[in-house]
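User: Sequence in, structure out. Go.
Assistant: Echoing your sequence, followed by the structure tokens.
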Amino acid sequence: MKRCAVAFLLVILACGSPEGDAQKARDSVASWAAAGAMLAQEWTRGNVSDAYARSTARVAIEELHGFNAPARDAALQAWRDLQDAVARNDREAAERTIAAFARVAR
């Protein structure tokens, strides 16, 4: 009986809960948004290269597509806006993305 109880407990712990998965998705989206705000801020100051900003934006967009969280679309849009700003070398547009990222990261 003890073996069955232990096996059952291990199965339950390994599966995770939908609530836990949803929280992980929200946390990941918020984390990517916080990273976007930092990147936008540093790129507008000239502390980050264009290549690094483009590469990071590309990875963030790819990663965000894997999440199903309410703020995902807003985070994706902010990353796309930053990506476009970097491509145009538009530091003012990049600076505007900081507020969009901050709203998602809360």
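User: And one key feature?
Assistant: The helical segments are 2-15, 18-44, 50-64, 72-88, 91-105.
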